[in-house]
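Annex B. Sample input.
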Amino acid sequence: MDIVVIGHVDHGKSTLVGRLLADTGSLPEGKLEQVKQACRRNAKPFEYAFLLDALKDEQAQGITIDSARCFFHTAKREYIIIDAPGHIEFLKNMISGAARAEAGLLVIDVAEGVRENSRRHGYLMSMLGIRQIAVCVNKMDLMGYREEAFAAVRDEYGQFLAKIGLEPLAFIPISAREGDNVAHRGEGVPPSNRGQDARDTKATMASPRMAWYAGPTVLDLLDTLQKEPAPVDKPLRLPVQDVYKFTEQGDGRRIVAGRIVTGRLHVGDEVVFLPSAKRSRIQSVEAFPFSTHREAPAGESTGVTLQTQVYVKPGELMVKAGEPQPCSSTKLEANLFWLSPNPMVMGRRYKLKLHAARAAAYLTAVHTIINASNLTTVANRRQIERHDVAHVTLETLKPVTCDPAVEIPQTGRFVIIDEFEIAGGGVILSAEQASNTLVLEHVRQRNQAWVRSRISPRERAARHNQRPALVVICGPQGGDMESLGRAVEEHLHHSGRLAYYLGLSNQLLGLNADLNVLGGREEFLRRLGETAHLFTDAGLIVITTIADLDDFELETLDTLNRPGALVVINVGEVQLSRRQPDLVLDKVDPGALSALHALLQQKQYIQDYQI
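Annex B, continued. Sample output.
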C-alpha cells in the first residue's frame, strides 16, 4: 500500500518516516549505526530524518527536495512510504509523490501550529482524491505532551478539513524524535520488541507521557487502512501508447500496445477506440516475451491484435463496447493547480498531457480562483498565478477522451506543459461532447473582419473554367502521395488551369518554420487550412498531401477552408471513418491521375466549356 507523508517544512515528516523504519526493523543491517557514526564524526546531533535525506543538498539544507520512497512491512502487509517535500518551492515534487498514494499522513508541528502550507497540502490531498488521511500532531515533547496544545491544533485543522470535505480517520499526538505513538506507545517497550508483536502487547495501553490519549498509534492506524477496490472491476480503459507493425518472416500482425489502467479485456471482446469511434474485436492478446494469452487485467502492459484492421493513433483510448463510456471533447471543465512562475494566461498555447494523449490546449475561462490556504475565492480573473488553484475551462483543437477524475482518476488527471516544463496539473470535473468550438469561433471572427474582393467566385470560375477547391491526398505514412500531388498540379497547369501544390516541406520551411519551437500537428494543420483558404478564395485549385489524417483533422481543414470546397483522395488503406473519401486509390499508378481528373470533371471543379 502506498502512503504519502506530507507537511510544512521542518514539521518532522522525514523524522516520522525514519522512526517508522527504525522501529519496525526495516532498515538494512547496520544502517542505523552507520548514520549515527557519521553524525558523531561531523559533530552533528543524530536525526532520524538522515535515514532518508540522502541527497547532498538535502543534508546541507536540512530539507527534503525530492519525493523519497522507502519500504517496510508489518504482519498484515507491505508498505511504500512516500516522503514528500514540504517547502513551497518544491510543491511540484510533493504533488507528483502524492498522486501515486492511496492514503496520506499530514504532519503538523504542534509548536508552530497550522501553517499556510498545511492548509494547501490538505486541499491538494482533497483535489487528488485521497480520502484516507490521518493527521499526526508532531513534536509533542516540545510542549510537555500537554493535551490542550494537541486539542488546539486538532480543532483548528479539523474545521479547515471539514470545509473541503475531508474527514480524517484520526488525529494522533506523536513525538517522532522520541518515538511516542509512532510504532509503539512510548517508554516501556524495549527496542528489541519491534513490529506487530510489540504493538499487540501495548495496543490497549496509553503512552506513559500522554495518558490522556487512547487512540491508535501511527502504525496501528496504517494497518486499518483499506486498499482501493481492484481496478479490474471498473470499465476497460487502455490508453494506446503505440502501434507496432512487424513484417519479418511474413509476420503481418499490427499490435496495438498500452497499459490497461482499469478493467479487463478478453479475446473476442468488441472494443471502441476514442475519440475516433473506430470499432473492432480483439483477435489475440500479446505479451512479450510470452506466448499469446486469452485475457489481460488492469495493471498489465500488453498488446492486442484486431480482427478487423482499423487505423488508430497513439493517444486514443480503447474501451469496451457496452460498458460505461468516457467522453470525447474539446472543452474540459477542470480544477487546476498552477506551479509555474509565469502565469497561465488566456490565448496562449499550452500542451495538455492526459493519459497517453497529447493535445494543444488553451485557457478559455477562469470561473474562480481559490486560495488553497484560506479557501477564499476570487472571480473574473483572466490569468492564474503561481500556486493558485482555479476552476477553469480548457479547450483543445481536437478532441481528447477522458473520465471525470472522481470516477476513474487514471484517465481524469492531467498536466499542463509550458516551454517543455510541467507548469500545472489538475483533475477533470466534466467534459462536453466533442465540438469544433475554437476553430468555429476563429472562422467566425475571421469572416466577420474579412475584406472580400469585389470579384465574385462565379466571375473567377467563368474566367478560368474551374471552381476553386482544396484537394487533400491522404493515406498511411510512407505512401507515394507526394508524387501524385505533383502530377495533378502539372496536369492541371498544362490544361490551362490555375493550380498549386502546397507541399509539406514548403509549409515547414516557410509559414511553419517556428513549429520546431511551438510544436504541434494541430497548429500545423490550422495554418495549412488558413493558407488553403487564401488560395481558394483567389480561385485556385490547391493540392496538398497529409499522412495519417484523421476525421477531426479533416473537419478542421474543411472548416478553415470555407467557403472553398474540399475534395478528399485516399491512397492505400482508408483511415477515415466518419467521412468517406471522394476517391479511393489502392496505389499510385498511371491510372490514378486519370481517375482523379475524371472525379474533378464529374464534380465540375474543372470544365471543358465556358461557364
